[in-house]
Design goal:
Chain lengths: 333, 507
């Protein structure tokens, strides 16, 4: 029994021992770990600052970390939040949980992707595009094709309660207004559009030929193209009078009351640099740099060649919170 | 120190760790800007989809618990009480699905069967394969407690079939009821498999409130029906499970000689193992694809695995110690309100892990409790709260079987309560404590929901690491990580098995 007690004490001491004193920064990350971890490791190597990271999971649909940040509001543990989209950053800003920081690395990033008071800054973006089964005669080219009877029962979209699909729907609400967007969603449903659990699943369904097209994030689409699945991509709504593609940049922000503000600023500067954007462009997620002139792999268009949906992300965030009960009802009906 | 003082301290300690955070959260859901309100609850019960999902959860839990218990009891008897060759080897193999996070199994099976696997029966099958080992383990353990003289006497008049039905099964009835209820609660609260296989269950409602609405109050309200189910299960358990058991001498167990049935039963068991264990494992091995993937996974998994093992060992030790202490309080009915302790432990076990995790964050994340919240201690509290019911219940059934006259004799000879505890109860409970430790270790090692919510940044465990890799990570890497986790879980169990075998040989 004494041996057991000694063993347990040793275990507890080892398990709970604090790390040795060194410069650290704590970052909560909603970007997929496979893409974000190498960047943070490089930061560690280059600066000597130890990064304590906490990553989101697929199951929590990029909201687990958000919930934790909100729960920790009164005693923040995180210095920096690397969100995979700016709308959830806006939710945090509206809850008064962010500190303003104007990073010198943000110079060159279009203003639409920077919060006006510098509470968050966007970088390396995904775009919402169509993944289409190869061999389709008439390819859909507008989001309104979800309501087009030519594609009845042949389209799939991810659950609009989660992730970038929610954000996209909220953006449509701000752009089109309530009546038009609700009518579009009703038509989409009447057109027997399937609802998948995630964009990744939508992409898999199209890759397997189960559905003709799906609205997915560019990283989901590019990964299927890399896997040589029989699919092709289309940037929707690029014609005159059409709204353009919805862009979902990453967003980085400093948490109000961050325990390590100095190292937090260093990490934010690093993440917003062209160098980081280039790394993310050549990673499997193929994210599009927001700085111009950054090298990019073939197969994906740079931001200045895409017609981008012009939205105010702050407004989108407010709308996102407003429409949640409606979306839930819409889903259950 | 007086017995009641010491154990009162234990209860107070457990209350602060587990129940108080939930009470604080519950109160929070009833107040808005300082005034009392039932809005969160009214909104919840106005939701018709909720009742459908509640019905789905109930049917799913009932199906999984019925199937696992019926088949598990049969397999438990076959593996724990017959002369079947390689029974221990089969037992270890059948344990493997319990070690794999359930969503990984769902992922593997869906990959094999495709679309038609999605839905009620797919979820039920995966959960059945995950929870079957729990029933088998419980039955095998409690078969060792059946008095062999009773069976021996009955065998003079009848065959094994009738003896099993009339003697053995009634004697292990508390274990059967316990296994059924345990699987029912686990299946009722399970989220990841149903979510992956797109079957709407009640636990997803709470998840929706947490994830989409950031609404802790509504999520707390959504847990209310689970509390009702736990209360019902708790009532059933006290009604169905016999607490009084006979004295069991430490003699050898009566083994069933299978004779002509040996070969067909051996083949049947082999087929079950192939279906439930070898198939998903093969899918993982095939998906791993190459040695390079395995080596890459090994390199990436090293730190999270080290932490996983440390946390799981510390968690298992805490669970064993407090499981024993709680079982002692409940068994001896040290306090008039012992049922509250019993019910609270069961409630914590049944509550959605995400809800408990959030409650712990809200309660413990304060500047003056950083020594807990900012260290892995918070994870250990999470494990303790969530899985204390397992070790408590296992120990409790053993304590019931320790003969009262041994303790009375010791007391008459002048032994104090702690001398009785230290020199009689603890030595007689050694085996069950070891089993409790192993179960605590397995559950702590594979846990990811609480850990995911509570781990201090930079201290992720292997299941959390696998989970985060699932978002766009390579299939080969994820499969290799799962295999590493299975090996890592099996190795300490093998060492324990070897140690146990050596001890027995020495005896």
């Amino acid at each position: 029994m004494r041996t057991l007690i000694l063993l347990f004490t040793a275990l507890m001491i080892t398990a709970c021992s604090s790390q040795k004193e060194q410069q650290t920064v704590t970052v909560y990350v909603s970007e997929d770990q496979v893409f974000s971890e190498p960047i943070l490791k490089d930061f560690e190597k280059e600066t000597g600052i130890k990064v304590n990271a906490l990553y989101d999971t697929e199951e929590s649909k990029s909201t687990g970390v958000m919930n934790r940040l909100i729960a920790e509001k009164n005693n923040p543990r995180a210095d920096v939040y690397w969100a995979n989209e700016p709308v959830r950053a806006e939710v945090l800003r509206q809850k008064g949980m962010l500190a303003s920081y104007r990073s010198p690395s943000a110079v060159g990033i279009p203003e639409v992707f920077i919060q006006k008071e510098y509470y968050w800054t966007g970088f390396s973006a995904r775009v919402r595009l169509f993944l289409i089964s190869e061999g389709v005669d008439r390819k859909p080219d507008s989001i309104l094709d979800y309501a087009n009877k030519a594609y009845k029962g042949n389209a799939v979209i991810a659950n609009p309660l989660f992730g970038t699909t929610t954000t996209h729907i909220a953006a449509l609400f701000t752009l089109w207004g309530e009546r038009k967007t609700k009518a579009f969603l009703d038509n989409l449903k009447q057109n027997s559009t399937a609802i998948s659990t995630s964009n990744g699943e939508s992409a898999d369904f199209v890759a397997k030929g189960r559905y003709v097209f799906a609205l997915v994030d560019s990283d989901d689409a590019m990964s299927r193209l890399k896997q040589k699945k029989p699919v092709t991509i289309v940037y929707p709504d690029q014609k005159k009078g059409e709204p353009g593609v919805f862009v979902v940049p990453n967003a980085v922000m400093m948490i109000k009351g961050a325990p390590h503000p100095k190292t937090a600023r260093k990490l934010i500067n690093y993440l917003l640099s062209s160098k980081t954007e280039q790394k993310l462009a050549f990673a499997d997620c193929v994210q599009i740099p927001l700085h111009s002139g950054v090298k990019m792999p073939k197969g994906i268009k740079p931001m200045d060649q895409i017609k981008v949906m012009q939205v105010d992300y702050g407004e989108v965030a407010q709308k996102l919170v407003e429409i949640q009960p409606y979306l839930k009802l819409w889903l259950e009906q | 120190m007086k017995e009641r003082t010491l154990f009162g301290g234990v209860v107070a300690f457990l209350f602060v760790l587990g129940a108080l955070p939930l009470l604080v959260m519950l109160l929070g859901s009833l107040y808005n800007n300082g005034s009392f309100t039932l809005t969160a609850y009214r909104e919840l019960f106005g939701n018709t989809a909720l009742f459908q999902s509640l019905k789905n959860s109930f049917m799913l839990a009932l199906t999984v618990a019925t199937a696992s218990t019926s088949i598990g009891v049969g397999l438990g008897i076959l593996l724990g009480k017959s002369d079947l060759k390689f029974s221990k080897f089969f037992l270890v193999l059948l344990l493997i699905p319990l070690l794999i996070p359930p969503y990984i199994l769902a992922f593997a099976w869906a990959d094999l069967f495709g679309e038609w696997f999605f839905g009620f029966w797919g979820v039920a099958f995966v959960l059945f394969s995950v929870y079957l080992p729990i029933v088998i383990l419980i039955i095998v353990l409690y078969l060792h407690q059946v008095d062999p003289y009773l069976e021996e006497a009955a065998l003079q008049l009848s065959g094994w079939g009738r003896v099993l039905w009339m003697i053995t099964l009634p004697l292990i009835r508390p274990a059967v009821v316990f296994a059924f209820l345990l699987v029912f609660i686990l299946a009722f609260g399970e989220f990841s498999v149903a979510n992956f296989l797109r079957y709407p269950v009640f636990s997803t409602q709470g998840f929706v409130y947490f994830s989409a609405f950031y609404d802790f109050k509504a999520a707390t309200a959504a847990a209310l029906p689970i509390v009702m189910v736990v209360a019902m299960v708790f009532w059933m358990q006290s009604f169905l499970a016999e607490r009084k058991m006979h004295f069991i001498p430490a003699s050898l167990m009566q083994k069933i000689t299978l004779l002509k049935l040996h070969s067909p039963l051996f083949v049947l068991l082999l087929l079950i193992v192939i279906l439930l264990v070898m198939t998903p494992l093969s899918i993982l091995i095939i998906k791993t694809n190459s040695i390079e993937s395995f080596l890459e996974a090994g390199e990436k998994a090293f730190d999270p695995l080290e932490r996983s093992l440390l946390f799981a060992m510390a968690g298992a030790t805490l669970l064993t110690v407090f499981g024993f202490l709680s079982a002692y309080i409940i068994h001896k009915r040290l306090f008039t309100w012992y049922r509250w302790l019993d019910g609270s432990i069961l409630l914590l076990f049944a509550l959605p892990a995400s809800l408990f995790g959030i409650a712990l964050i809200l309660f413990w994340n304060r500047a003056y409790t950083n020594f807990i919240y900012a260290t892995p201690l918070i994870i250990l509290i999470g494990y303790l709260g969530k899985y204390l019911a397992l070790t408590t219940k296992i120990t409790e059934v053993k304590l019931v079987q320790i003969p009262r006259n041994l303790m009375d004799a010791a007391a008459l000879s002048g032994a104090s309560w702690y001398q009785i505890l230290w020199y009689i109860i603890l030595p007689l409970s050694k085996e069950v404590l070891l089993v409790g430790w192993v179960i605590g270790f397995i559950f702590s090692l594979r846990e990811n929901t609480i850990t995911m919510l509570l781990y201090p940044p930079g201290s992720d465990t292997l299941p959390v690491y696998i989970f985060t890799q699932m978002a766009n990570g390579k299939d080969s890497l994820i499969a290799a990580l799962c295999l590493i986790m299975i090996i890592a879980t099996l190795l300490p169990l093998l060492f324990l098995g070897l140690y146990n075998a050596m001890q027995r040989r020495r005896v």
